[in-house]
Amino acid sequence: MSYDKRLDGRKSFEDLRPIEAKTGVVKRADGSAMFRIGRTMAYATVYGPRDLYPKFLQNPSTGILRCNYNMMPYSGRGERVKPGGNRRAKEISMVMEKALLPVVDLSQFPNSVVDVFVELPQTDAGSRCAGICAASIALADAGIPMKDLVSAVSVGRVDDKIVADLDYQEEAYENGPVADIPVAVIPNSGKISLLQMDGEISKEDLRKCLELAKKVCLQIYEVQKQTLKEKYTGFESGADENEKFSEPEVPEQSGSEEMKGDYNAQ
Amino acid sequence: MLNKEIKNHVADLLKKEVRLDGRKPLEYRQPITVKYRIADTSEGSAEVQIGETIVQAGVKLSIGTPYPDTPDEGCLMVGAELLPMSNPEFESGPPGILAIELGRVVDRGIRESKAIDTKKLCITPGEKVWMVSIDICPINDAGNLFDASALAALAALKDTKLPKINEDGSVSYMELTDEMLPIKKHPIGITVIKIANKFIVDPTTEEETAIDSRLTVTLDDDGTIVSLQKGGEEALTVDEIMEMVDIATEKSEELRKAL
Fold first, then answer.
1. B225 vs A41, A114, A128, B220, CA distance in Å?
2. Which chain B residues contact residue A41 at CB under 8 A?
3. pLDDT tens digit string along A1-17?
4. Where along chain B do its domains lie?
């Protein structure tokens, strides 16, 4: 047995699902973004830097970053997700924070906090990665000093194949072993700031997966940059304008209709 | 202090029949739009936009035991989560009193208008019925969550399809049937605000900090009042209440058109 064709019809094992990103979607926030990959959709909003209370949490040498990941009650594929957070959401909030920290510089904002709220109205695997992608756009939109964006995707293994951006069907594949590895990449340094795994994998395959993550995250990075440029086009210099037209194309956004069909058929 | 200043300013403007954003007192912000099926993990969902305010509502169904006094009727639950992403003043954690009031006001409008034909949600009398959960989540709170939430909840119900039931009696969530949730009535909630002896509708967040009283009136298709909720710190006269109800009745048609 071999996994020869992707269950959702993607042509290559390295293909990502269609990506869409928007910034400035929540007007009240200091920065905001929506990031959608396939049927997984994340909103991220940033508030701050603002005063941090209770006071004992304040750090006089730097501002702190605080992430909060939350699945909306109707965002799960099965029963209603009970509101109010759980152990999983707490852990994901923490690893998201750590994934974003290496690129943000809050040293100018002692005693302050930058809050990042990630909310998911609809999920189909890869939600923490989508959340990180949205959060890093939102942080940039809020004007937080950053060294780079962070791009994230889950990679892994489905049976004998190394794949990028597993959807729920692939994560739940039953005819062979699966490994699901959410990875966040800092594109300019190639360093990895989020790494988790469920499943089973060999050392060789792990290396292949991580190299694949670095490669496909660059596609996500381009979408993230493009999204920010679109919002701030008016502020660009002429040189940037030229560069904008040489950017690689954002993946096409059709397909959601046909995907819906597949989804119901399974 | 700040509230007082906003209030004085709002009051001064209202004397000239103008509001902070240039609207007339009884004018809703535009656009008023409803987008259906915004979350395909839900059985029904919708997103309502009124001006810059954006609210989502999603419906999840489950099978449960009916209440003993209504053994052949499905059940309804409405909850609102004031997501901290939507307003800098909202905090994570258990629902505060604002969220509870919002959820309950929307709940009453739907329940008391008998919007859902709950008898048709009975699977086995006394044993199994469909339980309908509506969750309201503001995305951007730019004021008037009450009206936007009531509209979003109703739109989400209208969008709801019943899922398939497996042979073992469990719900097959990812397979929706073509059977729509039976909806009989369309309750619309309109909140009328009193500031400095003037009535306005569709307040912005700045105006909300300055209100004296508010009255949320929910009306069904033929204009019957199905629920009321008075808020704010000042008392109202009967005449004021009746005028507010008249305003709500007139305005409800405007929101109804967006469905």
1. 38, 45, 45, 7
2. 39
3. 689 999 999 999 999 99
4. 2-258
